Amino acid sequence: xxxxxxxxxxxxxxxxxxxxxxxxxxxxxxxxxxxxxxxxxxxxxxxxxxxxxxxxxxxxxxxxxxxxxxxxxxxxxxxxxxxxxxxxxxxxxxxxxxxxxxxxxxxxxxxxxxxxxxxxxxxxxxxxxxxxxxxxxxxxxxxxxxxxxxxxxxxxxxxxxxxxxxxxxxxxxxxxxxxxxxxxxxxxxxxxxxxxxxxxxxxxxxxxxxxxxxxxxxxxxxxxxxxxxxxxxxxxxxxxxxxxxxxxxxxxxxxxxxxxxxxxxxxxxxxxxxxxxxxxxxxxxxxxxxxxxxxxxxxxxxxxxxxxxxxxxxxxxxxxxxxxxxxxxxxxxxxxxxxxxxxxxxxxxxxxxxxxxxxxxxxxxxxxxxxxxxxxxxxxxxxxxxxxxxxxxxxxxxxxxxxxxxxxxxxxxxxxxxxxxxxxxxxxxxxxxxxxxxxx
Length: 440
Description:
The protein is α+β, with helices and mostly antiparallel strands. It has ten helices and 20 strands.
């Protein structure tokens, strides 16, 4: 049976159970779980701004703050913490945040197979881990309906009859006095193919991470079906050997889930706990991926969307380029000059429209200036995109202007992106003074 599941939002606080109730909106953990996470914090070698967890004191209470990542943190004794995105200062609704996260995750490279329709998930009643397990189970059931694939597997055996190829050296070693035996090598059509073994291993691992009776019932049926198939030890090597032909494409979603279950997806501080399943994603990367997908969906007819363009450098040392510049998205007009291109960069930060400078980081402005000078030749428009929230519902009327040249002006527009229930219902709130075909 699965252990306890805890829910927390980004930048929320975890406390030891002995401090339960002392800090508003904190989540208390059993002492053993809190101390285990504390050791992970102390052993984390990442810089402070890249850490998953931050250990600190708040009002005299030792707390662990969850930062930068969303997803599932696995703890010993099959306990789990789900970390949900928070783009607002208000108290978020966990169900809505969970649905929004799943939709955004579906645009990541390794999560394209995720189902986000209302028919496939009941997020109001399920934790993230239960949703992940459900989707893995659903992908397995799709395979079972079509039948598990067999393959010809090379076998070696000492048989009382000749079958396949006689291995002469082994025959001489093992059967020099047994003339009634043949040491042979042959191909046999079997179910224990590599892909089925990986799925069996993932089924066994995921079993203890759900307490849903319906999911456990389905997993029991799958375990019985896969029971004759042996698991696999070296999953890294096994996945490198997987090559799906056109007859095996229906295995792809289940194998993608199996890879996440068996190998995990987490920062370094959570790696090495081989029996746990941590699925953690940098929220900045998730937001960037979703907005990029929205731009492709919304304006592909008018713009070529080039993510992470690597064609420019900040400086040259002699003839050697140094410090590559990679804006999140470079929008190039399909029917216009490249000088009319637009640079877009996404930041998963809360900006405040009531503040004079919106609480913008000066380093972000310097970064955009470097993009504009190198990608736009110092002239044109750029978008700095932040999540929409109650304190940032519309862009400022006027852009920030980089007047770095008497003859050229770079304009930086700070705009909110409102995540809806799908790409279609999401919105980039554009300023009235900037018209971009397909976006406004």
